[in-house]
Amino acid sequence: MQDYKQLKTRLFRYCLNAIQQRIDTAQEAIDAATAAANEETKSSAGDKYETTRAMMHLEREKNEVQLAKALQLKQEMLAIGPDKVCEKGEAGGLVVTDQGVYYLAGGIGKIQLEESLYYSIALDAPIGALLKGKTPGDEFSFQGKTFRIELIY
Questions:
Q1: Calpha distance 76→80 (Å, rounded)
Q2: Where are the domains of the chain?
């Protein structure tokens, strides 16, 4: 039998690393947009200057939203932690089905660990919503397939 505690810890670390990469990327983009806007010198063509500054401002705002989402997701992950043992489909649960293994902790997506494929999904994602509240033995349908929950950890 697989060590689900160890698997959940590995998935948790993978997800945290992926979230941290999102945070770093968004912060770098914010810094670059801010620097570009500040370095743009006012030329005789004032419209070009204003247009460039406006574009950099929009880029910065877009990345600030992404940064805020990533920081929120990180806080949610840290609040759950890898040690939470679940008996039903809920935040932090590791749901083993006959069609795959789902970690209900943020929308990271496919995770390849060694030879196995896992899915980190948010509870508000389509399949996450179907898993919410389910217990071992329950079945649900998704994209024309029937899934049977074998275990939740």
A1: 6
A2: 4-80, 94-152
User: What is the rounded distance in angstroms from the CA atom of residue 10 to the CA atom of residue 48?
Assistant: 50
Residues counted in the chain: 153
Mean pLDDT calculated for residue range 30-53: 70
Q: 42: burial class by Cβ within 10 Å (0-12, 13-18, 19+)? A: exposed
Which helix (DSSP H) or strand (DSSP E) does residue 125 occupy? none
Please give the model's pTM, rounded to 2 decimal places: 0.85
The whole-number average pLDDT for the span 89-116 is 94
Paired strand residues for 144? none
CA angle 59, 24, 68 (to 5 degrees): 60
Does the pLDDT at position 47 exceed 90? no
What are the backbone angles phi and psi of residue 139, rounded to the nearest 5°? -125, 155
Q: Given the DSSP bridges, would you call strands 116-120 and 100-103 parallel, antiparallel or unpaired?
A: parallel
